[in-house]
Amino acid sequence: MKALIFFGHGARDTRWREPFDRLAVLWRAQHPNTRVELAFLELMEPSLEEAISLQVAIGATEVVVVPVFFGQGGHLRNDFPVLLSACQDQFPEIQLSATPAVGEDEAVLQAIIEFSARTL
């Protein structure tokens, strides 16, 4: 079974999480046959390890992590690979992979341009 994890930075202000929760709700509505969880680098729960553990517990054999970051800053270049590697070591029975940061995708950048154009 394939599963998806949207991975964000996390923040002290709980309202920061609201778009991530909406993202997960939208995913579930549009892709009800593929499980999704949220995970955060710091300051919020669940952690990446906890989210992967939840997916494994329900039978996931392949987990794709989607970093919901605008670009490849230090967290994604340095911290994230270490976390992902530790999770792969902890869950060797699953296929674990990650996409580039969503902000590096041309379609995402175009969506921001279109959003901005609508504000004019």
List the helices and strands and how they pair.
Elements: E1 2-8, H1 18-30, E2 35-40, H2 48-57, E3 62-67, H3 74-90, E4 95-98, H4 106-118
Parallel strand pairs: 1-2, 1-3, 3-4
List keywords for this structure.
120 residues, Rossmann fold, single chain, alpha/beta, globular
Percent in strands: 15-25%
Q: Write the CATH architecture name.
A: 3-Layer(aba) Sandwich
Overall average residue pLDDT: 96
CATH topology: Rossmann fold
For the largest sheet, list the strands in their spatial order.
2-1-3-4
Summarize the structure.
This protein is α/β, with parallel strands linked by helices and 120 residues long. It has helices spanning 18-30, 48-57, 74-90, 106-118; strands spanning 2-8, 35-40, 62-67, 95-98. One of its GO terms (molecular function) is lyase activity.
Structural features, described:
With 120 residues, the protein is of the alpha/beta class. The protein has a single domain, classed as Rossmann fold. Helices cover 44% and strands 19% of the residues. The chain is built from four helices and four strands, in the order E-H-E-H-E-H-E-H. Strands 2-1-3-4 form a four-stranded parallel β-sheet, with helices on both faces. Helix 1 links the parallel strand 1 and strand 2. It is globular, with a radius of gyration of 15 Å. The N and C termini lie far apart (44 Å). The mean pLDDT is 96.
